[in-house]
Design brief:
Chain B: This is Extracellular solute-binding protein. The complex is a heterodimer of chains A (about 550) and B (about 350). Chain A is mainly α and about 550 residues long. Chain A is about 75% helix and about 0% strand. Chain A folds into 2 domains: about 220 residues, MetI-like fold (Orthogonal Bundle), CATH 1.10.3720; about 230 residues, MetI-like fold (Orthogonal Bundle). A 5-stranded mixed β-sheet of chain B has the order 2-1-3-10-4. Classes of the chains: A mainly alpha (about 550), B alpha/beta (about 350).
């Protein structure tokens, strides 16, 4: 019976992805095998490796692929360094304040990426905040901080670090207080305890966070385009350029597949490397970290200082661009600028609230996001249990398939969908949009929830069973409360992913189904007016109010107190 | 058994044809509009959307009791979707840029201009290519006049040492990018066929660029932050920028001419709302809408009968200036697009 549980629990996700994701993916594969691109040619042609030969024989593509890899690795490392102190702080926060503290992570996520990138420009530009502050100390201005790899790394870290924080938070908060008490009773200082107890126990979360941040960084192009000024190339930028601007879909599809394979390789390597550090999870012997005696005083002195510096840097990086958003939302200029305040006006808020331009789009976005999230949770929770508790043959291959949507650039997914439009299939627009949004959410939901399931204390379930609780009771009274942090994090991430998704959605938009990000993107692609900032400010305030309400009426700490 | 590639393709085509739901390229039907009909318009957001909603939509809705729905976004997504839906479009009218519109007519995605649109008789000849031009918005050099030793009067002035390292070159091969590359080539070599390699080699002399700019918003921030002092951009947006944000900048009127760029309303092949679409375009070409475009975003009219207030005429292209605009051979450009893009990526932007 148990040997069928794994495949049975993983079936819903697999079926969903086969229906909603495999079709555009197959279209992308077929497109990559075209000898040359023809926008009106048949999808299935005699296969040719010409596109891959072109990529393999051109050093330019090598350079872009490797540039993308190292850029993504750098973003992943910086996100981990900056994300740990924030996640640790959140995990230690008293329950009644925790929901509100989440604002630091959630508010940036609710702000349009274009607007956030403008904030980074304000930070790094020749007349930006960094140069203003250093100028007070007589340090000459550095005028070359923009349009280079460093600027792109800062921007992508600002965008993706929240995902790392949420992944780490889930694991860090799962650590039983008794483990901390045990470490303390053995003489470990907080810094030593973090290095020898919290850090090893948070490795599953680190693994999830690393995979998610790397893959999202490697497929991104908006921030890279804005902050790199086309001096920095990413594969995502190339795919977009070839697919959309040049209608060279075959080369774009081949590049997207190269990117997918690269992403999968990283996921496998990261998994193998971190699994070696978590031998206790796989039946091996634990190898506790033994720090040399002379290191301990250094760690005890430097640890708190370094962690506070990293924490401060994280908070500044996450929240500073939002200051610009607020300022810009009152700025009396026709087009948004990162170069100062020209006059006070409320007309952008008037446009948001009175003209009603955005109301319909906002409602569409919320409906799609809630529907996509509900479906994602319903099918991802069983999949997480299948991965964590019920090993079966082919599990690794299945996981690779489940993670594919994360590794395939969304723009390539859009190209595949467009090609499929040439074959007449009447799917209601809302259903189609929800289906593809579920595909976007699933990899995150599965990785976050699997880490959460791994962190569950099975001894509690055994204790409940020994006291007579049946499977349903154990699930509702033991497992669900234990999963709450993971469900909470997944819900937030899933909702925001759907709510903010613009790349694939812009291909599927119809006249009666325009989401808010597509609407904003439509304006930003032509002329970025401060209305976008006013709308972002409203969403930020809405988030703060919601979190305050959550913190007041829903004691999250009570839900999952162990 | 060996099978030839051509035979294989035929075999696959036959199989695919049986699987795919059939659709045919039908000649656009022209039934009279009736209450409840829905016209789907693909257009940019922002000011353009507001103008058409204010001036065009109410007239059509009052006249026919129809519904106007909008698909907002950039031309890139619109064009991609329209190509995927060729012959059975979800759009009735879509707005494209100058080279996209001409290519779309050649590819059978959109219809050429016809006299069924009454106001089309007033269109300048250059505005009848690729559909119905609704706004002329030429590309030219925008520069910081406080940093210039003399006003810029030629595209060749970009090569003056004072601009070295201060140019934000336009990204890619869009309207601005092609304008910059092509006008440079024409100025120095007098022949568009010299674009590769001569034109590219000449532009490479301008490197290092301060940056590559990918949008007006990005460019204007570069100007505000003193990152760059010169670029090539659509004149209308620059006029607004200079007027509202940064009077240090100026638009050049080069002796070789400004590059013609245009927004074009295109009626899709296979639309089921042919008459509504034609009426929509007709209203867009009316003097009222042309005037609103001119007043609000300094878009120059594409028709000869527009009544433009005297106080903004200096910021626009008026009828006597139309012939000074340089219209490129977009067929030639589109035929070389992939090759030039490859050179651009490696030698200009890289």
């Amino acid at each position: 019976m148990r040997k069928w549980l794994g495949p049975a629990l993983s079936a819903p996700v697999t079926i969903w992805l086969l229906i909603a994701f495999a079709a555009p993916l197959v279209a992308v594969v077929f497109l990559s095998l075209h000898e040359y691109s023809d926008p009106f040619g048949p999808l299935i042609q005699s296969p040719s490796l010409q596109q891959f030969i072109d990529i393999a024989s051109d050093s330019f593509y090598y350079r872009v692929v490797f540039e993308t890899i190292w850029l993504s690795v750098a973003v992943t490392i910086v996100s981990a360094l900056l994300g740990y102190p924030v996640a640790y702080w959140l995990a230690r926060m008293p329950g009644k304040y925790r929901a509100f503290a989440f604002a630091i992570v959630l508010i940036p996520l609710l702000t349009n990426v274009v607007v956030r990138s403008l904030g980074i420009i304000l930070l790094l530009s020749p007349e930006g905040l960094i140069n203003i502050v250093t100028g007070w100390f007589g340090i000459p201005a550095v005028k070359t901080m923009l349009f280079n790899h460093g600027a792109v790394i800062v921007a992508l870290t600002q965008v993706f670090m929240p995902f790392m924080v949420l992944a780490l938070y889930d694991n860090l908060q799962n650590t039983s207080p008794r483990v901390h008490e045990a470490a303390q009773s053995l003489g470990a200082s907080p810094a030593i305890r973090f290095l020898t107890v919290d850090l090893p126990l948070s490795l599953p979360g680190l693994k999830s966070g690393m995979i998610v941040v790397f893959l999202m960084s490697s497929t991104s192009y908006v921030s890279a385009t804005m902050l790199g000024g086309k001096k920095v190339w990413t594969t995502g930028m190339l795919v977009l350029q070839e697919a959309m601007h040049n209608l060279n879909t075959s080369l774009a599809a081949a590049l997207a597949l190269v990117m997918t394979v690269t992403g999968l390789l990283f996921a496998v390597l990261a998994t193998l490397a971190l699994n070696r550090l978590m031998t206790w999870r796989y039946g091996g012997r634990s190898r506790p970290i033994a720090l040399p005696r002379f290191v301990e005083p250094v760690v005890n002195v430097a640890g708190p200082i370094v962690s506070w510096l990293l924490f401060a840097a994280s908070v500044v990086l996450l929240l500073l661009p939002l200051g610009l958003v607020f300022v810009q939302s009152f700025n009396d200029v026709e087009l948004a600028t990162a170069a100062g305040f020209r006059g006070f006006t409320l007309r952008w808020y008037h446009e948001v609230f009175v003209s009603g331009y955005y109301t319909d789009s906002f409602i569409v976005s919320v409906k799609v996001a809630l529907a996509a999230l509900a479906v994602s949770l319903i099918i991802a929770v069983p999949a997480a249990f299948a991965l964590a508790r019920f090993p079966f043959r082919g599990r690794s291959a299945l996981l690779a398939f489940w993670l594919l949507p994360l590794t395939l650039p969304h723009v390539a997914l859009g190209v595949g969908m467009l090609k499929l439009l040439q074959i007449y299939v009447a799917v209601p627009a809302f259903i189609g949009l929800v289906a593809i949004h579920v595909v976007v959410i699933l990899p995150f939901a599965i990785t976050l929830l699997t880490a959460s399931v791994i962190g569950l204390d099975e001894a509690q379930e055994e204790a409940a069973a020994s006291l007579g609780a049946n499977a349903w009771k154990r699930f509702l009274l033991v497992i669900v409360p234990g999963l709450m942090p993971g469900l909470f994090a997944t819900s937030i991430v899933g909702f925001l992913l759907s709510f903010d998704e613009v790349t694939v959605t812009s291909f599927l938009t119809t006249a009666r189904l325009t989401t808010l990000p597509v609407r904003l993107y439509a304006e930003a692609s032509f002329e970025l007016r401060p209305t976008a900032h006013a709308l972002s400010s409203v969403l930020i305030l809405l988030t703060i109010v919601l979190l305050a309400v959550v913190g007041r009426f829903v004691r999250l700490d009570r839900l999952y107190a162990r | 058994m060996n099978i030839k590639r051509r035979s294989f393709n035929k075999l696959i085509l036959g199989g695919a044809a049986t699987l795919a739901a059939p659709y045919s390229f039908v000649r656009a039907q022209t039934p009279d509009p009736k209450p409840g009909d829905e016209l789907v318009v693909g257009i940019w957001g922002g000011t353009q959307e507001k103008i058409v909603k204010q001036y065009i939509e109410p007239v059509l809705v009052d006249k026919y009791g129809c519904k106007i729905s909008y698909v907002l976004g950039g031309t890139v997504e619109r064009r991609a979707r329209a190509y995927a839906e060729r012959g059975r479009p979800s759009f009735d009218v879509l707005y494209l840029n100058i080279f996209e519109s001409r290519q779309a007519v050649k590819d059978g995605v959109t219809q050429p201009a016809t006299d069924a649109v009454e106001n089309a008789q007033y269109l300048y000849p250059i505005a009848r290519k690729g559909g119905y031009g609704v706004a002329i918005n030429p590309c030219t050099i925008v520069y910081n006049k406080t940093k210039a030793s003399a006003p810029i009067t030629s595209w060749k002035d970009m090569w003056k040492p004072e601009w070295q390292g201060r140019i934000a070159w336009p990204n890619g091969l869009g309207a601005e990018g092609i304008s910059a590359l092509m006008m440079s080539t024409l100025s120095w070599f007098g022949d568009q066929t010299k674009m590769a390699p001569e034109g590219f080699d000449k532009v490479k002399e301008l490197k290092p660029f301060a940056a590559i700019q990918g949008s007006q918003a990005q460019l204007f921030d570069m100007f505000d932050q003193d990152i760059a002092d010169l670029s090539v951009e659509f004149g209308s947006f620059c006029e607004k920028y200079i007027e509202e944000r940064n009077p240090d900048f100026a638009l050049a009127d080069p002796e070789e001419g400004k590059a013609l760029a245009m927004n074009v309303a295109c009626i899709t092949e296979g639309t089921r709302n042919q008459k509504l679409a034609e009426e929509w375009v007709n209203l867009h070409l009316s003097p009222e809408v042309m005037q609103a475009y001119a007043k609000e975003i300094y878009y120059s009219p594409t028709v000869t009968n527009a009544d433009i207030p005297a106080d903004i005429q200096s910021k626009l292209i008026m009828p006597d200036q139309i012939d000074t605009l340089v219209d490129f051979d977009w067929d030639y450009i589109n035929g070389n697009r992939n090759k030039w893009q490859s050179i651009y990526d490696r030698e200009i932007a890289g």
